[in-house]
Design brief:
By secondary structure, the protein is of the alpha+beta class. The protein has one domain. The chain is 46% helix and 15% strand. The relative contact order is 0.19.
Length: 81
């Protein structure tokens, strides 16, 4: 699983600007994505999907899909409340 994540995150074609993700995937609005990634530290594993470069935010689409599906390691290694 870790090797797959490294492979996905190292491919620059997988990283898309946050502003374009809502154009490609209409089920998300740009304000929804902006708020979600603004609070990425509150959602286990979401920080892996996002990188800030200057003023621009980028999302790794395959990792974001894995996060939505609950397949990232951080999502199921959290201690129960």
């Amino acid at each position: 699983m870790t090797i797959e994540i490294k492979t996905l995150s190292s491919n620059l074609e997988n990283w898309q600007p946050l502003t374009k993700v809502a154009d490609v995937f209409p089920q998300f609005t740009q304000p929804q994505l902006k708020r979600l990634f603004w609070r990425r530290d509150h959602h286990p594993g979401l920080s892996q999907c996002y990188r800030q470069v200057g003023k621009r935010g980028y999302i790794c689409l395959p990792l974001f899909g894995m996060w939505l599906a609950g397949q990232l390691v951080e999502q199921y290694e959290q201690p129960p409340l």
